[in-house]
Structures are given as structure tokens and as C-alpha cells.
Amino acid sequence: MAFQITYKQSIERDLADLNHDALAETLNNLEVGLMDNPRHYPMIKGPYAGLARMKLGKMRVIFTIAGEEIVVLRIGKRLGLYSAD
To answer: pTM, whole model, 2 decimals?
Structure first.
């Protein structure tokens, strides 16, 4: 099954503090990891129940899968990522 990755518009704000190299590495690792097998990542419990998370070093990615589309909702460091904005 071929998945298509889309990003919520607010991802730009999540990634604004990363330098160019860190941004490129994060997005590349994200896309490679999710395209391989997005369904093997653990589901989140609590307020974000039903969403999945992926670890990228010190970064975390919160996403959902809808059919053949992966929607990336948040990217950031674990501390503070799960708090409501």
C-alpha cells in the first residue's frame, strides 16, 4: 500500500526553531520512517487517544492514518508537545 504524507499547516510553527540541516534531517527521517510501515508505531493514550506517535531522536511526531493518507499533526520535543495550545 502506498501512503501519501500530508502536513497540518501548523507544522511550520512547530519547525520554525530548527536550523536548515536539522529541519532537512527531521523531515527526511520522518518520511522514510512513515513510508516504511506507519501502522507499527504505538498509539497514544489519554487526550490524544487514537493518534500515533513516532520518535525521531529527541523529537516526537504525532500523526494519524486515514486510508492511504498519513496526516502529520505535530512535531516537536517531547516536553510540551502533548500540552494543548
So the answer is: 0.86
